[in-house]
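Contributing new records

If you add data, match the layout below exactly. Sequence lines come first and carry their own label; structure lines follow with theirs. Keep one chain per record. Anything else will be rejected by the validation script.
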Amino acid sequence: MENNKAFAFLEKYLMGPMGKMSQWRIVRGVMAAGMASIPFTIVGSMLLVLNILPDTFTSLKGFFDASIFRVSALYMTANTCTMGILALYFCLVFGYEYTKIHHDEEKVDVNPLTGALLSMFAFFMCIPELIFEDGYMTLVHIVDTKNSVFTINGFSMGGTITRLGSTGIFTGIVMSILAVKIYYYLVKKNVIIKMPDTVPAGVSRSFSALIPSFAIAFAVMIINGILVFFNTDIFKIVAIPFGFVVNLTNTWIGLMVILFLIHALWIVGIHGATIIGSLLTPIVLSNMEANQAGAHIPFAGEFQNSFVIMGGSGSTLGLVIFIAFFAKSAQLSTLGKVALVPSFFNINEPILFGLPIVYNPYMMFPFFLAPMAAGTIGYFAIKLQMIAPPVAQVPWPTPIGLGAFIGSAGDFRALLVSLLCGVVAFLVYFPFIKFYDNKLYKEEQAAA
């Protein structure tokens, strides 16, 4: 009875609101942008790992200096053009998807590619830094070689244009929303230049985007002008609320809330990792870039897959190994053997729906507690600087230990902590799965 009340509570106050939120157009656009950016971040991260490997394995330094590092400027361009311009990827994909959603659901003749380009246009207009001085608006120009500060004609430079990196992701999303909304509204109201049907589609599209382009330009100029007059800009304004969210997610309490939400959604049959994880992608990528610059932030890169979700959501790898080889009930033993290989690659849908864990009162509590216990160990191991933080994005199916090792650029201690997290997660499951296995075994014996 109590379990039924718990499931009813989760369905009413979590499944319903989160299910609705996942259908918001902005959320769907952010999720699409996050998913699209992952291949690029993995490529850029792997090349960064190659570049900093001798920092961990010092014996390789001589070999790398004599060979690989001779062409490091060549291969690190792939890192600069992925991690260094993440905001551009987010802006373009979000603009495209957000426009496409309006096209498909509102039946308004907006072109997704045009929406993507208009989003990029609005975003780029916000990148140059301006100041209002002596009655004039001027571009910031600072060249301080001593402190490595370079702002040339308004563009702050690092490995690339600084604001194109992860720090610009949220501004890119905000400006994309503005651009697409203006574009959509003008097309819906027919405030566009229409060409005859005989004109090629590409030419017609360019003219139909002309008035929206002017409107977006003037809107962004007005916003920028007002903010610069008050000695700020859109990047600084956007950083206030999003900075609060980022800081909150980097606390232990924040991490526990995230893990709880992911697994609470799973318990009632919703893919929590996709919904919550996709929304957090801009944050973990931004934190990973900060770690590359010397920070020590736990919740970065593939922290969850390296230290928490080993075997899949719920940290079920140890559970699967146990039922595959030690379960007494035929049902669990067979299921464990089927799910064993996928679990090593963090795929555990056979367990979630076959054991099952979804809507199973016997497995609900360890499904919450195991990832929270593992996450706590991983969080404090990094926070207390016992192990290196995640500095590289690794593919999420990377097996236990290996993901933490690669993601930390070769820290063996991270590998050991990852294994410890997996063991602790299993210890949380053990009394619950033992009880459930005995229950199923008795039912099988009675049926026989």
